[in-house]
Amino acid sequence: MANGKTMKNLEAAFSGESQANRKYLAFAKKADEEGFHQAAKLFRAAAEAETIHAHTHLKSMGMIKSTAENLDSAVAGETYEFKSMYPGFIEDAKTEGETQAEKSFRLANEAEKVHADLYIKARETLGSEEPLDYFLCTVCGHIAEREAPEACPLCGAKKQAYRLVE
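User: That's the sequence. What structure does it adopt?
Assistant: Structure tokens below.
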């Protein structure tokens, strides 16, 4: 595992590559909506390349461990987000009258609670888990087990907004 400046550089590189991946996927979605499919394809290819870079940096940081340890890490990350990070963001947005940002933060905060619970359940049943399907609300990020609900409990999106995650 890296130390010192190299570790800080790996952390910065991981953050940058991860953000580039997400940004390029958003750009691809917009390009497809506008009918620019070649540009969308390029954005998706670049997003995949950024994922490769991010995974390599994460591995170099020693952050990919056993599945049990990774689940514990995921629980800690999601819990931090819904207990510490998002509540402050929500209050700041509310104070500044940024209603769109406030809604975005609130939905993410509620979804993170669900994600943490799912990770806890996966950790508790690791090795003896039953096969489950997971359905993702493509509007807010809610994850449902077994089947998609008729309406998302967080954002109200209809069942059709969910997609099966393979």
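The first strand starts at residue 134 and ends at 137.
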